[in-house]
Amino acid sequence: MPTYRTPDVHIEEISVFPPSVAEVETAIPAFVGYTATTTQLTADDLLRVPRRINSLLEFESLFGKGPEYEVSKATIDESGNFLSAEIANSYYLYDSLRLFYDNGGGDCYIVSAGAYKSTAPRVERDPIKQAIQAVAKVDEPTILLFPDAATLGADDLAAVQQEALKQCGELKDRVAVLDLGLGDVNGASFRDKIGINNLKYGAAYTPWLKLNYSKRVGYAQVRDKVVRNGVAQPLKDLTTDSAVLNILKSLDAAQADVATLATRVGELGEGGLSVGGTFARKVADYLAGKTVASAQPLFAYCYAIARKVDGLIAGTPLTCTDLVGDGGAKTGDIRTLITGQLVPALKPLVALEKELKAAQASYTEQWDKNSPPTTAIWENTFRADADGGPPASSGNIPTAASATVAARLDAALPGIQKAFTAVNAGLSAIVAAAHNYAHLYEQSLYDNFTPYRNIIKGIGSTLTLCPPSGAIAGIYALVDSQRGVWKAPANVSLNGVIAPAASFTASETDALNVDATAGKSINAIRAFAGKGTLVWGARTLAGNDNEWRYISVRRFFNMVEESVKKSTYWAVFEPNDANTWVKVRGMIDNYLTQKWREGALAGATPKDAFFVRCGLGVTMSAQDVLEGRMNVEIGMAVVRPAEFIILKFSHKLQTS
Questions:
Q1: 16, pLDDT greater than 90
Q2: Of 42, 68, 272, 396, which alpha carbon lies 20 to 30 A from 204's?
Q3: Which of 389-393, 526-530, 601-605, 615-619 has the lowest mean pLDDT?
Q4: 624 CB contacts (<8 Å, ≥6 apart)?
Q5: How far apart are CA 295 and CA 550, in angstroms?
Q6: Roughly how many angstroms between the first and final C-alpha of the chain, as a whole number?
Q7: Least confident of 35-44, 265-274, 370-379
Q8: 620 Cβ contact list (under 8 Å, min separation 6)
Q9: What is the phi/psi pair of residue 616, to 5°?
Q10: How far apart are CA 570 and CA 566, in angstroms?
Q11: CA distances from 505 to 240, 257, 422, 496, 524 (A)
C-alpha cells in the first residue's frame, strides 16, 4: 500500500478480475527427416536445428526440393508407348509435408537429420534420434513424426519410436504419430518391439498410402533404364533421327559438365563450406590477426578461383560447346565471362597486390604462385611488369614509414572483397549456365522425342507409396481448427491419397483396433466405396487404458495442462493465501467453463463437467504452505468418441 504524505485526491486501481488462460496451439508438428540440403549460410547450419515454416514454398527455400526417384526399369512397347515402371524412393519427408498441407496443415517445424545420400545406408537410426532430441529444446511442437524412419529395420525403427515416446512422456506436451514398416501392415513386429513405456503419448497408423504426386524424374534417371521387348536399350538406340541424336549428344555433354562443375567448385570449398563461406572464414581469420600471413590467403583464394575457371577451358576442359566454345564462331559462355568479368576484376587485384608489396616488403605476392592461368584469353593479367602485366596501382596503400602493417593490409581489404565478389559471381554464372543448357536440351528432347516423352509422362502417373504420418498430422490440424482438439481425428477423408496400400478384412481390423494381448491399438486407414480413404481409428497405443484410450482425450489434456501451466506463472512467489487461491481457481474455472460451452466437457452443468480445487484443508495442509507448495486439483470429464454405435432391432407385434 502506498504511503500518503501530501494532502490531495489519490487514485488507486484495484484488480478484481482473475487473469485469463491463454490457450496454446494444439497442432504444430515437428517433421524429422532428411532434406536436400542442410546449409543455408554456413556449412550444416540447418542440421538438427528446428526451423519453423508455414508453407511448402518456405520449406523449399530453406531445405530444397524433394528427392529424385530412382528408376530401375521403364518398359515400353514396340511403338514406344509406356507400359510400366519400377521406381523407388528412400526419403519420405517431402511427400509427407505435401500430405500435411493438402490435409489442412499450417505452421510446423522441420528438423533435418542430414542431406540426401546416393549410397547406402541412406537412412540411419542415430541421425534421426539426434534430430528428435533436438526437438526437445523447442517448446512449441505438439506432434512428433519422422516418416523417413519407416524405412529402417524393425529394431532400428523401434529404437527411434521409443526415443520419441520417451520425449513425449518427459515433456508431457506432445504426442508421437508413429508409422509402421511397409512390410508390417498388421503391426505384429511393431507391437513386439515398441515396448510398454509412455504408450499413452503415441498413436500408430497403418497401412502406407498410395500417392500420385509429381516426381523429380528426368533424363539422367531413365537414359539407361529403358526396356523394350525384354531387352534393355539406351535411348539413343530407339531412334535414327539425326536431330534427336544430336540433342542426346548435347544433353549427355551438358549433364556431364554439370557433374564436373559440382566436383570442381566443391574442391574450392574448405571444411564443407561453400566458396562464399570459405572466403568469409578467411576474412574472419584475417580480421582476427591482421597479419601478412593471414592476408595472403585472401589474394590467393581469388587467384585459385581463376585457375579453376581456366581449367574448364584448358587442360581437361568441359565438353558442352555452348560453355567452352567450338574453336570457331561460337565463343562459349566461359570465355565470354573471363574476358568480360573476370579479367576486369583480377587485373586491378594484381595491381593492388603489387602496390601492397611495394609498401610492405614482408608481404609475398600470390599472383604468380601455383601455376597462374596461362591461356591467352587472360591477356597479361598474371604477368610481371616487364612482360606487360598490370603495373602496381597507387593511392590505395599507405606508404608513410609510420603506417602500420595492419593499416596497409586494411587498406587492401575492400579491393580484395570487390574482386572476390566479381569472380565468385562469374563462377556462379558458369554453374547456372551449365544447368540451364542441361535443362534446355532436356526440354528439347521431351518436345522432339516421343518415346522419351511417353516414358516421363508414364513415370509421372505411376503411383508411389508414403507413410501415413504426414497426412494424419494434417488431419489433426484440420479437425482442431474446425471442431476442436477434443473431437476424435477419425472418420475424416484424406486428400492427396489415391488409396491405402493394403486393405483389411473385418477380423484384421478387429485385431488392429483391440489388442487383447497388450492393448497396443493401431488405427486403420481404410477405403470405403463412395467415400474415399478414411481414417478409421482414434486410439492411442494405450488401448486398454480407460483414461488414455483415445488420442483426442490425450491431446485435450495436453492442451489444458500446457495452457493452464503457462497462464499460472504469474502466481509464482505470490502470497500463498486465500486471495491467490481464489484468483487461480477463478482463472481455471472460467477457462474450463468456456471449454464446457464449446462441447469439450461432458455434463449438464459446469459442476458436472469439471472441478477446480485449491485451498487450505482442501488440497493443502499447513505443512504444504510452510514448504511453499500451492496444490491445485483439476478434474475434467472430457467427451469421448462414440466408437461403437449399436443399433438394436426387434420384432414388434401388430397391435391394430
A1: no
A2: 68
A3: 389-393
A4: 630, 631
A5: 65
A6: 83
A7: 370-379
A8: 614, 629, 630, 631
A9: -70, 130
A10: 9
A11: 53, 54, 67, 24, 11
C-beta of residue 105 within 8 angstroms of C-beta of residue 474? yes
Average pLDDT over residues 446-462: 94
Residue with cell 580480421: 287
Q: Rounded to an integer, what distance in angstroms lies between the CA atom of residue 307 and that of residue 478?
A: 56
Distance CA 186, CA 164 (A): 21
Which set of grid coordinates corresponds to residue 598?
464449446
Task: Say how far apart CA 314 and CA 305 lie, in whole Å.
Answer: 14
Closest C-alpha among 474, 468, 471 to residue 104: 474
For residue range 206-260, list pLDDT tens digits in order: 999 999 998 889 999 998 999 998 899 989 889 999 999 999 999 999 999 999 9
Class of the CATH-defined domain 29-68+88-215+464-551: alpha beta
Spatial CB neighbours of 11, under 8 Å, sequence gap ≥ 6: none
Q: How far is CA 197 from CA 131, 134, 259, 594, in A?
A: 21, 21, 48, 34
Indicate the residue type of 56.
Answer: L
Q: Are strands 226-228 and 70-76 parallel, antiparallel or unpaired?
A: parallel
Strand order, beta sheet including 532-536: 51-53, 108-115, 29-35, 143-145, 175-179, 202-206, 523-528, 532-536
Q: Which three cell numbers stand for residue 342?
A: 573476370
Give me the count of residues in the chain. 656
Q: Which amino acid is at 129?
A: K
Query: Strand ranges (DSSP E) for 116-201?
Result: 143-145, 175-179
Q: Which residue has the cell 526440354?
A: 443
The domains of the chain are located at 29-68+88-215+464-551, 240-448, 574-656
* H or E element, residue 594: helix 578-598
- In the three-class reduction of DSSP (H, G, I as helix; E, B as strand; rest coil), residue 250 is classed as helix
Q: What mean pLDDT is reported for the chain?
A: 93
**Which pLDDT tens digit goes with each residue over 580-600?**
999 999 999 999 999 999 999
Three-state SS string over 369-428 comes to: CCCCCCCHHHCCCCCCHHHCCCCCCCCCCCCCCCCCHHHHHHHHHHHHHHHHHHHHHHHH
Mean pLDDT, residues 389-408: 90
Helix (H), strand (E), coil (C) string for 96-139: HHHHHHHCCCCCEEEEEEEECCCCCCCCCHHHHHHHHHHHCCCC
**pLDDT confidence bin for 1, thresholds 50/70/90:** low
